[in-house]
């Protein structure tokens, strides 16, 4: 079927994206970095017991993405550049942090082994021979040693040992697997409209099914031209927290070709009033409260 918006449909849009502010730079951004460090520590601890190749970094990336999106919604952070900067810094902290915690664990283990060797020499004297390698001097030195020794890779095709540049490549791929899903989730979340006036994300205020009569009335008000008579459908009404920006409306029905209809229709004051009246009198019923 064909459906399109005519010229009577409002072209108003939300009041722009979020603005840069000191609160986001000084509080929210460091908070995301701190969360990245916490996630790196948790990933290191879990990774000692469960770290399947490919799957584990993807899970870490999903947790990072979900958490950043939740923080964006909770603290109403809608400034896109700040959000992307937070993602980049948090991802670097998560990826590098896991290697740092591995390095610290290696230092602790090396010092413990050295103390045990020293105690054994004190007790048994010259019967104890040999010496232990010195602890790594830093994270880079630790990674170089691990690369020289080889990183074991357990796959369905068998067990392999990645040495030298292959080990570095495997770590780089792990980093991309962490960054990929996190970036995809943040990008999808940033598609939601944001009101730059009251500084809040648009959220669903009403949603539910509609009978055929209500759908037909809404189609006429919005200036749509369906090829077939709708037999019922569903709607969604979105707005910012204060209702200070245009209200968004989404309407769908079974026979609708969604490619021919905008995802969100922005209502002017007159359309908004008529839409609310129709929803209130719909026999099917709705959920939520009206947006005023």
**Approximate shape:** elongated
Using the CA coordinates, give the radius of gyration. Answer: 28 Å
Provide the helix percentage.
Answer: 40-55%
Estimated share of beta-strand residues:
5-15%
Order of helices and strands: HHHHEEHEEEHEEEHE
What's the tally of helices?
7
Strand order of the largest sheet: 8-7-6-5-9
Total beta strand runs:
9
Structural class: alpha+beta
Largest sheet, strands/sense/barrel: 5 strands, antiparallel
Count up the domains. 2
Oligomer: single chain
Poorly predicted regions are 1-11, 284-292
Distance between the termini: 34 Å
Structure description:
The protein has helices at 22-47, 55-74, 80-124, 139-149, 165-189, 212-222, 269-280; strands at residues 151-155, 158-162, 194-195, 200-201, 203-210, 233-239, 247-253, 265-267, 287-288. With 292 residues, the chain is α+β, with helices and mostly antiparallel strands. The protein has 2 domains: 22-192, no CATH class; 202-286, no CATH class. A hairpin with a 2-residue loop joins β1 (151-155) and β2 (158-162). The longest helix is centred in the middle third of the chain and has 45 residues, at 80-124. It is elongated, with a radius of gyration of 28 Å. The relative contact order is 0.16. Residues 1-11 and 284-292 have low confidence and may be disordered.
């Amino acid at each position: 079927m064909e459906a399109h918006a005519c010229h009577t449909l409002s072209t108003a849009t939300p009041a722009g994206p979020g603005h840069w502010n000191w609160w986001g730079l000084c509080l929210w951004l460091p908070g995301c970095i701190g969360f990245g460090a916490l996630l790196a520590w948790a990933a290191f601890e879990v990774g000692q017991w469960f770290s399947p190749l490919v799957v584990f970094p993807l899970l870490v990336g999903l947790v990072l993405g979900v958490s950043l999106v939740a923080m964006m919604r909770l603290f109403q952070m809608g400034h896109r550049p700040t959000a992307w900067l937070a993602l980049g810094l948090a991802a670097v902290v998560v990826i590098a942090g896991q290697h740092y915690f591995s390095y610290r664990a290696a230092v602790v283990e090396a010092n413990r082994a050295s103390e045990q060797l020293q105690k054994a020499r004190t007790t048994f004297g010259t019967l104890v021979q040999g010496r232990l390698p010195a602890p790594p001097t830093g994270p880079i030195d630790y990674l170089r040693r691990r690369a020289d020794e080889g990183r074991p890779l357990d796959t369905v095709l068998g067990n392999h040992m990645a040495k030298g540049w292959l080990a570095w490549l495997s770590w780089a791929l792990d980093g991309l697997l962490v960054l990929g899903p996190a970036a995809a989730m943040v990008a999808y979340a940033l598609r939601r409209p944001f009101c730059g006036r009251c500084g809040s994300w648009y959220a669903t205020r009403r949603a539910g099914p509609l009978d055929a009569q209500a759908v037909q009335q809404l189609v006429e008000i919005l200036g749509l031209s369906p090829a077939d008579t709708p037999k019922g459908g569903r709607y969604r009404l979105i707005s910012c927290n204060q209702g200070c920006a245009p209200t968004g409306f989404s309407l769908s029905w079974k026979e609708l070709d969604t490619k021919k209809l905008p995802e969100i229709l922005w209502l002017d004051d007159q359309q908004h009033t008529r839409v609310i009246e129709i929803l209130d009198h719909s026999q099917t019923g709705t959920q939520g409260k009206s947006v005023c």
